[in-house]
Fold this sequence. Notes:
The chain is α+β, with helices and mostly antiparallel strands and 109 residues long. It has helices spanning 18-27, 56-60, and strands at 29-32, 36-42, 49-55, 74-80, 100-106.
Amino acid sequence: MTTSTGHQGVPYEEITEDAYSDAFAHGARAIPTRRGVLLDGGCPRCAGQMSYPLVDKVFRSPLPPGAQVPATNSKVVAILCTCPEDHPARPDGERGCGAYWNITLSATT
Ligand SMILES: [Zn+2]
Ligand SMILES: [Zn+2]
């Protein structure tokens, strides 16, 4: 079954590379939603089309209680591939190819 073009059916692996962030940011769109923002783009590892919803709660969860947030207008968030295509060796309940990377969101307000 090949329903999308260019998808790489690489084996599932939890992996990250420095280049992923730039590669994703290059083609991704950030779509404002009522709850946050929806990142829409292609996975830099498997080239699958994916959307990743970011909500305010998610922005804050990685920080331990009492952590000081730097006074900047940007947030670094970790996202992972959620492409709907098949990847061999993927654990049940997981999505995507296992790739993950950080992106920096710039606040607009
Ligand atoms: Zn992927
Ligand atoms: Zn994929």
